[in-house]
Amino acid sequence: MSEGQRLFIDGAWREPDGGHYEVVDPATEGTVGWAPEASPDQAREACAAAREAFGPWSRTPAEERAAILGRAADIVRARLLPYAELARAETGATTGTARGMQVGVGAARFRRYARVEPAEWPVPPQINEAGPMGRAGVMGALAVRQPVGVVTCVTSYNNPWANPAGKIAPALAMGNTVVVKPAPQDPLSVYRMAEALEEAGVPRGVVNVVSGRAVGIGETAVSSPDVDMVSFTGSTAVGQRIAEVCGRQMKRQLMELGGKGAAVVLDDADVASAVAGIGTTFSFYSGQICTAPTRVLAQRGVYDRLVEQLVSYAGRLKVGDPREADTVVGPVISAAHRDRVESYVELGRKEGAVVVTGGERPPLERGFYVAPTLLADCANGMRVAREEIFGPVVVVIPFDEEEEGVALANDSDYGLIDYVWSADVAKAFRVARRLRAGGVGINTVGRNMEAPFGGFKRSGVGRDVGSYALHAYSEVQAIVWPG
């Protein structure tokens, strides 16, 4: 970029009060571009613009809102290659991941919410036994989904396309307006998304994007009295602070927080399938994803084979330049995060875990790389087994009986997505229903993108994806009349 990126506020591209800061390519440590540093005043202006735009946008027919989302999907899809190259540079994702799982999924999410779904449904009539209508009063009712209002969307760094699109698209489809606060590490992609929406015809003030490294930008966008709801993806610690603000002000909230996914591998499991699924922790965003199966619980009969094959699998993965076609594991987002991940590996050693592969920094001249690392002979009480590392690190814990495996899986502060591998499907479903997690994959790490997504315990509040996202970004109103 020859000049710094501008903020997008009230339909205009604005110079940031705080100047610009460098966005760094995690693979080359070079400059990707210059991101805008908004001031708290500019964040307040964005919230006020969204409030002003809410009335007209919420009254716009759903079909017109959907048509804008459909045009945005087409624009993003047409620019997939340059958008993916920017995403790759900002995040360090491999080219295939940037195209398919970042920009491609972002476009798909706009396309998904470009279809209109019913926003009201009848409630069965009720015959009242008593009350002001008399003993035989019959009351009809209708439940109607109404937009919440202004939604502040605080997005994560691991996917600057799929994550913001998954918030913006259903929020706009329901008639809300949004203020987007992207992650400071890779905000440039989110501004490209705003450009696509502007070109698609979104009215001024409906979408606003303000970025910055200063904590005050996000705090202002969350606490503004113009904001009715906060949708946040990120760490549990930050989510708790946002939830405190929402609680004091009675704002609605949708929280997608951390995870420490348990992969329960039973004795009768297809080990190759389990290895391929667990191995995505090493390759998919280099482990920087809350849904990863990072905590493997292996039954004794399969434990040694599983560890041996995970070591072999990790050893075949090429770590390096994400632009090269055969690279599987790219860098993590920053030098500071690399240091954090490495400190957890060292902590695991001190706690008594055995580093059976990885554990050393790859011999590359530049870039923030972490080798795929497997920690065996772990115990569930170790910090490496309890805390979210958010890198290409997997811990393996042995267990004896099924009951113990379930208990270990549930002995966690988190509960986002767990996994079960077993050749006995009935057994796998039995175990899955006992796991305290928002989702469970049986013999797969794949997801159904119409199924509800969200966590138990400290992994979040609320559900989104598919029709569930439309519920998340709406209030339900009851309209009642005498029959």
From TrEMBL:
Keywords: Oxidoreductase. GO terms for molecular function: oxidoreductase activity, acting on the aldehyde or oxo group of donors, NAD or NADP as acceptor. Residues 13-479 form the Aldehyde dehydrogenase domain. The keyword Oxidoreductase applies. The keyword Oxidoreductase applies. It comes from the Bacteria. Belongs to the aldehyde dehydrogenase family. This is Aldehyde dehydrogenase. It comes from Streptomyces humidus.
